[in-house]
Amino acid sequence: MTVRADNRFLDTPMRAVECRRCSARVEVRKSSWHQTSVQWDAAATAACHERPHAQPLPGPNGKFFESCSALQASIQEAALGGAVPVPDDGY
Amino acid sequence: MTAVQDTDEIRRIEAEAAPTRFARGWHCLGLIRDFADGKPHSILAFGQKLVVFRGEDGSINVLDAYCRHMGGDLSQGTVKGNEVACPFHDWRWGGDGKCKQIPYSRRVPLRARTAAWPTLQQDGMLFVWNDPEGNPPPADVTIPRIEGATSDEWTEWRWYSTVVNTNCREVIDNNVDMAHFFYVHGSFPTYFKNILEGHTATQVMKGLSREDVRPPAKEGQPKLLGNTSVATYHGPSFMIDDLTYHYENMDLQSVLINCHYPIDANSFVLQYGVIVKRSEHLPGDAAEQLAIGMGDYIRMGFEQDVQIWRNKTRIDNPLLCEEDGPVYQLRRWYEQFYVDVADVQPEMVERFEYELDTTRPIESWRKEVEANLARRAAAAADQPQPA
Fold first, then answer.
1. Does B360 contact A at CB distance below 8 Å?
2. Which of A29, B64, B242, B380 has the smallest number of CB atoms closer than 10 Å to its CB?
3. How large is the ipTM?
4. Domain ranges (residues) in chain A
5. Angstroms from A70 CA to nearest CA on chain B
6. Pick from A36, A65, A91: CB nearest B355
7. A53 Cβ partners below 8 Å, 6+ apart?
8. Is the CB of B230 less than 8 angstroms away from the CB of A33?
9. What would the mean pLDDT of B146-175 be, rounded to a whole number?
C-alpha cells in the first residue's frame, strides 16, 4: 500500500509556526478561519509545556491530549498576521 | 459542428489490490462468554483457520486450527483438560502451542509445536495479538480499561457480529468522514476533530438530533437534543466510543465498541457492542431496554455502511474538498500496522490534528432538514382524514 498525497495539501501547503510559549515548531495549514491542520513531530511533542500537565479526561479514551492552548493562540496570531494564509471566501 | 475540447483531464480512480498482509495489533474476537462453553470454536481470521478454546483452568487459548500431525481440524475436536484434542487421532495441544501428549504413542516427536496467538481477556472481551513478524505485544500497546464493563452501574454488553465482504480499510476511513454521518446515518455533526498519534486515532464529534430522521419524542418522554462522542481507535481494529446523549433533563452515558478482525484481504468480521450507564432517570430495566434500542439503532447504522461498501469501489486517491476530514493522513497512520516495526516511519505515528470547519455543512444541512420537515408536513396534510 502506498499512501498518496492529500490533494488539498498540494494546492495549499503547510507553513511552519513556532509556539510562543515553548518554541515548538509545528506545520500548520488553514483552509478557513475555523479549520486547522497541525502536524507535530517528535521534537515539538517533547517541547510542549502544556502537554505534561494536561489532566486526562474521564472515560476510557481520556488519555489523549486534545490540544495545546498556547499553540492554538500562536496559530491564531500567525493566521491574523498573514504567516499562515487563510482563504478569504466568507468563511 | 465541432466537438468542444475539454481541457480538464478526467480524474481517474486509482486503487491497488488490498494488502494480503494482516495488521499488527490487538484484535477483539468477541465476548468471552461466547467462547466459555468448554467447546472448541472455529474462527476464520488473518487468512487462516484458528481454534479458540477455554481450558479447565479458565484460560482461553488461540491456536492454528490445523493439527501438525495429519492436518486434522482442531476446531472440530474436543477440549480435554487444558488441551484441545484433534478429532482425527486425539493428539493433544496446549494453549502454548506445544503438543502435550499423544495417547497412543510412547512419546511426542520433536518440533511438535503449532502457532499460538497471545490472548488478552479484558472487560468481558477476548483479544488476540496478531503480528506477521511473530513478536509478542509491546508493553505500551494496550487496550484501555472500560470501567463500565465490569460495573453493576452499567448494563451488560449488548453485542452484534456480522461478516462484511470488503477490505477492512473501509471501516477505518469512517473515523475521519464527517459528512457521511449526515448522509448515511441521519446524524447532524456540528463539531468534528481528529487527532492521530502513536497507535491511536481519535475522533471528537458533537452533534444535534435530527428531527427529520428520528420520530419526535412521545408525550411525557424527554426530548433528545444531541450527543457528544469521543471515539478512539486503539490500534488497527478496536475502537471505543465514549458516547453521551444529551436530553432536555439529563445526560445519558454509554460506551460503544466498534471492532473487526480480517477474515482475508477482502472480508472481515465486524463486531459492535454497547453498554449503558444506569441512572435515576432509567428505572427498572429501562437501561437494558435502552441498550437494546441503541444496539438496534447502531446495527441499522452499520447496515447503512454495509450497503455503501457493498456497491462502492476501493479508491486510493479520493478527491477531497476542504470540508472532508484527513483521509490521507488517517491512511498514513493506518499504514504503520502493515509494515515491519523497523519500517514504521515517523510521519505514520507523529501527532496530527485536524479540526473541521463545520460552518458551511451546518448551513447546508439546516436547510435540508427544514425541507424534509416541510415535505413531511405537506404529505401529512394531504393524507385523507380517517372516517
1. yes
2. B380
3. 0.96
4. 12-53+64-81
5. 15
6. A36
7. none
8. no
9. 95
